[in-house]
């Protein structure tokens, strides 16, 4: 069998087609990363007028700081909670919509809309819903005997930012889970039904294992989302409080760099955050991908 090979009319056309993406990557990804790595080795004044090379002193100072070590555990709880909540809710919604015939497109459109909302707007919406003074959710919880106040309770604040961040990501996960469900051959499910397997058993023994590639991909994406793209949600809801209970790594980078004007420490934190995300991604591909059935 002879394969066709794509040929371009000009020698430089392939490079010209790749150039925009390469330029964007260099300007907005590679260059800021290198600049952050360089700044992490310096100690600068608040106005950036004077800098001193200190080597790895910024990193050593961070790992000796209890507040930074506490933000590591806060980030772990936040990332795990956001990933589990957003993926489980999206899978439930996708499985429900996949069983619909007439109204599938309408429900899909409605469920996708939240993804178009900016993270800060999503945070403000959930802040109003959970506001201890005017929110409807604290009012309902108080009727059930629970007094909600994320301004003073660290656990309430963590629950708030996890719910807000997960709600923002559910639409993205829902689209991929729905596409994965629609690609599963119905003949397999019908054969299991003929053999007497119930809906729950069919889902966990046939449908969910066949969704493992989609689940693995979304797990990687959601971990990266929770580590990097949730600053707007946290800033609009709790601003890292109370008592640093929701002060994740990405928010601490902002607080120390733009509020505290400790530029060297902030750059070192961004380098560590990037290294953690890269390490988690490598671990996921190295070990968890072995359980994925393609």
Automatic annotation (TrEMBL):
Coiled coil: none annotated. The chain crosses the membrane at residues 12-34, 76-98, 110-129, 157-181, 202-228, 267-288. Keywords: Cell inner membrane, Cell membrane, Membrane, Transmembrane, Transmembrane helix, Transport. It comes from the Bacteria. The keyword Transmembrane applies. Residues 72-284 form the ABC transmembrane type-1 domain. It is found in: Cell inner membrane; Cell membrane. Its main location: membrane. InterPro entries: MetI-like, MetI-like_sf, UgpAE/MalFG_permease. Gene3D superfamilies: MetI-like. CDD domains: TM_PBP2. It is a multi-pass membrane protein. The complex is composed of two ATP-binding proteins (UgpC), two transmembrane proteins (UgpA and UgpE) and a solute-binding protein (UgpB). Belongs to the binding-protein-dependent transport system permease family. UgpAE subfamily. This is sn-glycerol-3-phosphate transport system permease protein UgpA. It comes from Halomonas mongoliensis.
């Amino acid at each position: 069998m002879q394969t066709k090979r794509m040929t371009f009319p000009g020698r430089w056309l392939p490079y010209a087609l790749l150039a925009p993406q390469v330029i964007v990557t260099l300007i907005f990804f590679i260059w800021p990363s290198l600049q952050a790595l360089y700044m992490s080795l310096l100690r600068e004044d608040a106005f950036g007028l004077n800098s001193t090379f200190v080597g790895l002193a910024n990193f050593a100072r961070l790992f000796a700081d209890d507040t930074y070590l506490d933000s590591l555990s806060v980030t772990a709880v936040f990332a795990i909670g956001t990933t589990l909540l957003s993926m489980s809710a999206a899978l439930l919604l996708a499985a429900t919509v996949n069983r619909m015939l007439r109204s599938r497109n309408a429900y899909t459109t409605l469920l996708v809309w939240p993804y178009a909302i900016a993270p800060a707007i999503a945070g403000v919406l959930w802040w109003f819903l959970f506001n201890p003074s005017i929110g409807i959710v604290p009012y309902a919880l108080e009727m059930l005997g629970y007094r909600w106040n994320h301004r003073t309770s660290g656990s309430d604040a963590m629950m708030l930012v996890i719910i807000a961040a997960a709600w923002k990501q559910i639409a993205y996960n829902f689209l991929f889970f729905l596409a994965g469900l629609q690609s599963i051959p119905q003949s397999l499910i019908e054969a299991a039904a003929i053999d007497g397997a119930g809906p729950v058993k069919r889902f966990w023994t046939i449908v969910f294992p066949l969704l493992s590639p989609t689940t693995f991909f979304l797990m990687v994406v959601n971990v990266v989302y929770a580590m990097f793209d949730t600053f707007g949600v946290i800033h609009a809801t709790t601003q890292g409080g109370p008592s640093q209970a929701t002060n994740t790594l990405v928010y601490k980078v902002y607080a120390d760099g733009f509020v505290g004007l400790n530029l060297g420490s902030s750059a070192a934190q961004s380098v560590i955050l990037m290294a953690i995300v890269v390490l988690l991604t490598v671990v996921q591909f190295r070990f968890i991908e072995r359980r994925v059935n393609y």
